[in-house]
Amino acid sequence: MTAASYQVDVLVIGGGNAALCAAFAAREQGASVLIVEKSVQALRGGNSRHTRNLRCAHDIPSGTLVESYTAEQYWQDLLRVTGGATNEDLARLLIEESADIRQWMEQRGAQFQPALAGTLSLAHSNAFFLGGGRALLNRYYEHAQQLGIKVWYEAQVLELDVQHGQFESAKVSLQVDVNGVAQKQSCEVRAQQLIVASGGYQSNIAWLREAWGEAADNFLIRGTGQNTGEMLAALDAAGAITHGDPKACHAVAIDARAPKFDGGIVTRLDCIPFGVVVNTLGERFYDEGEDIWPKRYAIWGSLVAEQPKQLAYAVFDATAARDFMPSVYPALQAPSLAGLAQQLEVPQTEFLATLDAYNAAVQPGDFDPTTLDGCTTQGLTPAKSHWARPIAKPPFYAYPLRCGITFTYLGVAVDAQARVLFAPVDGAGKVDLNERPSNIFAAGEIMAGNILGRGYLAGIGMTIGAVFGRLAGTAAGAALRG
Amino acid sequence: MAKLTNAFIRPGVLAANPALIETKNLLAPGNAGPQETQRVLSICNACRYCEGMCPVFSTLANYREPGLAEFDYLANLCHNCGACFDVCQYAEPHPFALQVPEALAEQRLHSYERFAWPAIFARGLRAQPKVMLVGLLALLSCLLLGLGLVLGGTGLWASYAGQGSFYAVMPHAVMVVLAGSSFGFAMLSLAVSVYRFARHLELDLMALARWRVWATALSAAATLRYLGDAQGCQSLSESQPAWRRVWHHTMAYGFALCFASTCIATLYHYGFGWVAPYPWFSLPVILGAVGGLGLVVGPVALAYLKRAETQTSVPMKVSRTGESASSMATRSPGTEQLNLSFLLLLAWVSATGLALLIGRDHASMPVLLAVHLAAVFTLFLLLPFSKFVHAPYRLLALLKHSAATAPGT
């Protein structure tokens, strides 16, 4: 490992779900495989470490999945959340392959458990990892060791050498132990096939700023701080076709007190449908009860991102205090709405006027959190369509909200074998079909934008990683033999 | 296309709002104790990824704002298998530095201390090895001195073969008074502690009237059901909990056999007038010898396992290797000492008992007898302030759990 050069059949960049699935599929065809993981061992696996499930199509109850979730339902759900901004061929391929991916993962160490308390609406569509994503990763890495897959931790790819229409080698910086002292050493890794599964670029705030301006500084990154997009930039520089809106990402409204990176699931807030959301001017800005929460949670990230200071507050009262899953930070609390305004540092007059107007507009109805109930507002803009109850019973509570980005969608375009597509022009603008590399594959977040033009469907990120990882590894292995 | 440097991150609006800063800091790891348990469990309760791992987590999900009673309940359900630590996304080097098994171990110790009676002895729980050694030496000195006086000219190094030989060395009445008073103290102290802990847990008395609740809890306790089972503690290297269970059974059932041996011997003495020592092929000796062997092998093996677990890195337990290595032993020293000292005391009691069995016809018998009795009386006196209390406390926690999960509730 300390040698200045290293030869392997398949080089996998990244150490999460997509990378491991790709490595398994390639190794099982006889290829020698090296995984280059940027992180320290304890934080390996990128965003997979924070995941909890993946979305699978199935016609009959299967494993921990109840009832059925047909390919057509899956497709309709995807169509709805993306508003059609998806590559239909790849999306249908994803859904088709999702049908057996759970069992495939299980054969490679994954363990599953029934849907967690509070997530029962996902029990038919999403298979939950026993112990969560880190447990999955532990089992994967154990399996990788059994298969003889080599893993380098704290190893960062600095350059990709793409010449004569092929990937040739990667320059990797890694930590080596020289007489008990950790030193950085550069190593040239030569490989016949390259699989890039290194995630999105959401942890690169400077890059986010290109699309969002200074607002990006106020975003929180829910997952690893390691996904800074070097590989996406390198593939782009090598002529790969990139794809996607630089503003598009999976982002949810999370507790503003969360750490800048790696806060994960515990900073999630499920309280929005049970109260109102105001911005720092003390004004409401969107219908908090538009639809059931699993269908709306993924829009609130960008809603908050568009507010002044990229900050908002979810406000509710004692009546609603126990209607949702607990989150990790305590709600701010005050005996009166005026006192709450003071704590939140929002203009008191505007805040009270907003709450008064809301309370006055609430219509009587039977509150039912499990369905689109009849509790609505009348004559209010924006309306609150469901679960509208007066916010009048002290104490009053608030959670501060920020935009929490899970991952970005701008990525590389791939084909049905997860092979990265390259522009049919060279650097000088000349069309040269023969010079397009065919030995570079991509899986996971770096190509998720092919499926997700916008919006999000709970658990689909891990399905994309596993399915396209398997496709990439299979194709890379086949290319070696062919 | 992209700037690849990670930008300076400006402090946002939050930094100016004291109300938000104060609550944000609640997630920084703190010193062990109920406050740390609260921090840890509030993170667990918002995550819930471990819900399928063991009853601690599925039970936690029932409590939105768990308090001290729930902390103690959950802590006494936990087997400290470490599986949840291995899969924790918030373990070090994450800034939340979550260490659930350790927090619950500290909480358990806390519960032992708070309900120990008389309270003045509770601090002995954290000073186990010292208390144990002082107790052993003090009792041994007293016994040797006493025996020397009783035996007079015959001396402490002489053969006293045959029936009643033990009582020739120490009069039966003296032995009964010493054993009875130390054992009686232990039982009284334990009864008070257990009663108070049961009150604290708010056990549902109606549920306790159902045999099924007892059957479930007792069978879970007797089989260590949640240690290393399919729905119990999950571990990457299944061998660790599996071996722990084997050695714990060896020890616990060894203890039970020794206890049975003593009961039968008492019956022989008072019921039938048969006086110890008993022949090799008698029930008290067979049960005592087999149980005694288990009570030596089990504790020693468990102590060795604990050492191996904390000092070497088990290959598959990745989170205990490399930079995230956080020794559970050094960070919860009170619990480790409590465990280790109890294991060694048990092993010492039964090793000296076996030595007495082998050497009972030898001239060393009076010394062996004194050593063994000192060990037994120390064990009795320390029992309510030793790791032994985990047995009734866990049973109470299991009863509460089975009452809450039994069909029909």
What do you see in this structure?
- In chain A, strands 1, 2, 6, 7, 8, 9 and 18 form a seven-stranded mixed beta sheet that branches. In chain A, strands 10, 12, 13, 14, 15 and 16 form a six-stranded mixed beta sheet that branches. In chain A, strands 3-5-4 form a three-stranded antiparallel beta sheet.
- Chain A folds into two domains: 5-207 and 223-246 and 409-481, 3-Layer(bba) Sandwich (FAD/NAD(P)-binding domain), CATH 3.50.50; 250-404, Alpha-Beta Complex (Flavocytochrome C3, Chain A, domain 1), CATH 3.90.700.
- Chain A has 482 residues and is of the alpha/beta class.
- Chain A is 27% helix and 22% strand.
- The two termini of chain A are 29 Å apart.
- Chain B has two domains: 24-114, no CATH class; 117-405, no CATH class.
- In chain B, 64% of the residues lie in helices and 0% in strands.
- Chain B contains 17 helices and no strands.
- Chain B has helices at residues 18-24, 34-47, 55-60, 68-77, 83-86, 100-115, 128-151, 165-169, 172-201, 205-208, 211-223, 239-272, 283-311, 328-331, 333-358, 365-382, 390-405.
- The longest helix of chain B has 34 residues, at 239-272.
- Chain B starts with 17 loop residues before the first helix and ends with a helix.
- Residues 2-11, 234-238 and 312-330 of chain B have low confidence and may be disordered.
